[in-house]
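Bumping with the actual sequence this time:
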Amino acid sequence: MKNSVFMVIMLISLAFISCSRTKQETESINQFDADSEKSIERDKVIVISDIHLGADLSYSECVAHRARLAEFIIEAGRSMSVKELVIAGDLFDEWYIPSRNSTYGTADQRAFLLKIAEANKDVFDALRKVINEKKVKVTYVYGNHDLLVPEQFISELLPGIHVIQDNERQGVGTYYPTIYPCVAIEHCHRYDFFSAPDPYSNQDRANGTILPPGYFFSRVAVNSVLDFPQKGEETKVPIVVLKEPADESQQNRFIYYQVWKTAFEQVIPTKESFEEKIITTNIGHFNGSFSIFDLLPYNNSTDGSITMKLYAESCEQENWEKRLRYNNVPVMTRVGEAIKGGLETSFLDQQSNVQYFQNDTSNVRVVVFGHTHIPMIKTYMNHKQEECVYANSGTWIDRKEKQKETYDQDIENMDFVVISKDKDIDGNLKVELKKLNKGNHLLVESKTIKL
């Protein structure tokens, strides 16, 4: 009898220890909470961006990382310290499609987006689960690759998600988390000449379009990445001469030409015919097909001036400022610098300082951008001589099989930013740049500022 009682007590004790250990192990597995031992509170805002989910996994940019992304989202939803998960643009990808394919195929935009959700079901299921549990707020901010996606379609695919759009302006938005109103999160494409919505160009060809020139670049870039259609000699960009260097508009058109030339000869060397109508659109009020020559500036045969078939007036400073105002940009920039910024991404990083920290109407102390795919943290002093932090949330795209060198997809990209209270010093805000490394949260860099 005594032995039986003893055994019962032992079993109960072991069960209790087992339960306690399981709970402890479960909490230790959630890496979002690993630094919250002093006090668990929901004070973390997680920012990811540039996921680029596509409808066709044979060429989509995020394939190898989808399983890790779904795990990451579920982990954020189960965390006891995560307050919000913010997707800062380019969740859906309507741009990265081989140029000869009609953008939506034989269907319409809604069917195309449903196909994205089905092709990436594990990711969408994870997002829906977190949204439905209502413990972690999930927010979506527009990027350039999904700037044409209507809010109602996003809400249909992800019911309950918080969609950010500036003053009902399609394709741009800035999010200020309620818990940290001094933080601004946006994709940053509104400052990018090649990616900002453009409602003023090409209206004679596509009335109502806001598609910027970067859309056409992306369509051709896919062909280069996939080595499509066949191998051969790289196509050389025709020579264009600046004959009127004193004319600012001509200077800017020449800079625009130089960016395209560098892109086609160094960034994405193309073997495509420049004359063939290889870019099939059927998106954003564009119909029909266009050639690379339709995109490139050229010397007019009559007077030698540089002219353009598409985006003809976009290189004028007046037109650029009009476009910036349309996209709710507070501080005007020079169009020549913005065009160069298509290759020199430091121009876009610097906009965190120009548009927020040096803007005396702004009280923002932390800015998070995506878009460039280059994760980083930088510090600035604002107009009040207060320390500020800029972070770029990087990307979740994976590398493609045509890149023959040996690599491990499980350590490529998968970047994210964590904003939280400093547990050691009250009133301090911590900004961390991290990445997944074989499923582990690897700290890349951290900055703390006093508010």
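The tokens above came from a reply further down the thread. The longest strand covers residues 440-450.
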